[in-house]
Structures are given as C-alpha cells and as structure tokens.
Amino acid sequence: MLVLGRKPGEYVVIGDNITVKVVKSENGDLRLAIDAPRDVKITRGEVWEQEHKQGQAI
C-alpha cells in the first residue's frame, strides 16, 4: 500500500488514465475527485465491503 500526503488542489495519477485529486480538506473530512474511464468501476469502501459480506453469506 502506498500512503501519500496531498493538499487541496494536488493529485495523483494511477496508470495512464485515472486521476485522483483532493478538492477539499477540513476538520478531518476529505473530498476527492476521481477522473477515470467509464468502464472503470469505482465503489465506496463501505459499499464494497457490504457487497463482499453478502457474497460470502450466500
């Protein structure tokens, strides 16, 4: 796992076609803007965990 510190306005690039930019940071809250191709599925962590827990229960 790579851990980076970024300030609002700064970004990271993943591969050639995904950009993750910090757009707001205050009081421990963070907002990210993710620019990726439409065929790349983006899922919030809590949703991903819930989907995988349900998959294991079946």
TrEMBL record:
One Gene Ontology cellular component annotation held by this UniProt entry: cytosol
Subcellular location per the Swiss-Prot or TrEMBL entry: Cytoplasm
Keyword Repressor included in the entry's annotation: yes
Assembly: Homodimer; the beta-strands of each monomer intercalate to form a hydrophobic core, while the alpha-helices form wings that extend away from the core.
Family membership noted in the UniProt record: Belongs to the CsrA/RsmA family.
Single GO MF annotation: mRNA 5'-UTR binding
Protein function: A translational regulator that binds mRNA to regulate translation initiation and/or mRNA stability. Usually binds in the 5'-UTR at or near the Shine-Dalgarno sequence preventing ribosome-binding, thus repressing translation. Its main target seems to be the major flagellin gene, while its function is anatagonized by FliW.
Keyword line: Bacterial flagellum biogenesis, Cytoplasm, Repressor, RNA-binding, Translation regulation
Statement: the UniProt record of this protein carries the keyword Plastid: no
One of the GO biological process terms: regulation of carbohydrate metabolic process
Protein name: Translational regulator CsrA
